[in-house]
Amino acid sequence: MSPPLIELEGITRTYGSGEALVRALDGVDLTVEKGEFVAIMGPSGSGKSTAMNIIGCLDRPSGGHYRFNGVEVATLDQDQRALLRRNYLGFVFQGYNLLPRTTAIENVELPLIYKGQRKAERLVRAREALQRVGLEGREHHTPSQLSGGQQQRVAIARALAGEPMVMLADEPTGNLDTKRSVEIMELMQKLNREAGLTIVMVTHEEDMAAYASRLVVFTDGKVVRDELMQERAS
Amino acid sequence: MLWETVRLALTAITRNALRSFLTVLGVVIGVAAVIAMVTVGQGSSEQVSANVESLGTSVLVLRPGAQMMGPGARDNAPSFKLADVEALQDLTSLSAVAPTVSSSETAVYGNSNRSTTITGTTSAYLEIGGWEIARGRSFSTAEDRSGANVCIIGETVRTALFGSTDPTGEKIRIKSISCEVIGLLVAKGAGSFGQDQDDLVIMPVRTVQRRLLGSQDVSSISMTVASGVSSERAISDIKTLMRDRRRIAIGEEDDFSVNDMKELASMLNSVNSVLTGLLSSVAAVSLLVGGIGIMNIMLVSVTERTREIGIRLSVGAQASQVLMQFLVEAVVLSLLGGVIGILAGLGLAYVAAQIMAIPFSPSLDVIALAFGFSAVVGMVFGYFPARAAARLDPIEALHYQ
Ligand SMILES: Nc1ncnc2c1ncn2[C@@H]1O[C@H](COP(=O)(O)OP(=O)(O)O)[C@@H](O)[C@H]1O
Ligand SMILES: [Mg+2]
Fold this sequence. Notes:
The complex is a heterodimer of chains A (234) and B (401). Chain A is α/β, with parallel strands linked by helices and 234 residues long.
């Protein structure tokens, strides 16, 4: 049997020290298999984003073990973690994190540049990804010319463009209206079902979590609930 | 990937046009200021050196009065006479001796006239001053002695009175004297102070004394030192002779002075090098100002750039790839600024050299130095903050405040 795609074991993440010590994660155990669609919920400040950043190799844990596809991430150096992000992970940030003064299509192209794709190929892929999120015709708009929801969709397109094995999305619909949110969720569900994309998504909304196949609830840096769900039919 | 990196860098440069422009401007200011100032400084010292060279062997000038510029000293010191000149001619340490008297007069020819300086002297004066005859001839011994009504004119006077025609054999009028032009001097151009050296008329000393000044006095005596004799030796011979002729008792001060013109010129040269030093320090300050400008822009943009680095790292860029992009950016901006700065600096220096009538002599060292400094500043402040950012975990770079 192949190892689980994501395996967190006793993960801790602390900030500061002494009196000011904050335990953002206080012993998290979480295993995600290939092809799952996991929704993470929990009150604000419960450590959801911190956990996502660690899974996304954007941050390193203070303790515990994180294995990605069986590989102990702590043994990888900075460049190897960059390769892991490049080849397997797509991250959608809560705050979009697009390059300013840079068009939508160029933002989406960014991961493809580091994947070593040629300009012509990149353009095709990036345009395709923007189409998937419903942004055709907005390719040459810069973030400041786009609404919050549109920027979020550019960010999703950027995460999809690199055809990752896992998409990590931190409140991807936080700034979208219900109609757009539903569209995005249906897209993610489709990617999960048809392309086998593994998705871990943080959300505040029960309605959005309902698209996932599994619900994980965080409280005070710990996983307090972890259950399979009846998937919402689309 | 290298071409891709260059493209990324160029995109970043055009996308952040204002920041790029200010960075380039900083380099341009620094490089242009240094090159312009040092080039002008070097040109003017070359000019002075050329003047010193043109004086050839040491020229000594003997004047009545204790010091050249001493207050009052000159008034009660007796003037020299032509007899003094003859006595000096007997000194073996001197090779040529010429008296000079001068008077400002107007030279008239036909309808043209020119206010100029009439110098009364002998043919030895031409040798001492390094003057050459372009046309005609110098004074004959008989003319030197007798005070004939003949003259040799400088190029400026010739142009004013005769245009480009041959002046020799023509008669010009100076006050009541009608004198024949027997020679035309080869033009010397502007002197150390920018004065027109060719604006002169030379006449036999006796002619000027009798007909223009009505006096037997000689205002100064110019001499060249014989070859193989040091100027110190010659000066000491002159002093001994003059103290004797002027009956100055032992222990009394000289009532005349002997100046070494070459020494004067080299003094001028050292003044000039002080000036060059001053210009260079002004230039160094501009370089620093340019450098601080670049530094500021780079540091101000660190927050934005750190976030940019965070974004690039988060989508899978390796630190080395990000750094290469930033390095290329810094190199391109520095090169651009450097090239524009060099052109602007040389242009300024060229214009200044034309206006000041000094040689335009750009120095490769200075160009390299100015360019190198600005390039280093541009790269250091473009590269090191980027290196610090690229070493962070992506999330830290993204959250950088
Ligand atoms: N960089 C940081 N420095 C200090 N404390 C932090 C930092 N990031 C997060 N925290 C703290 O860690 C806890 C969990 O934060 P986070 O994971 O963002 O929560 P959530 O995403 O669930 O709202 C919070 O108490 C937060 O204040
Ligand atoms: Mg959060």
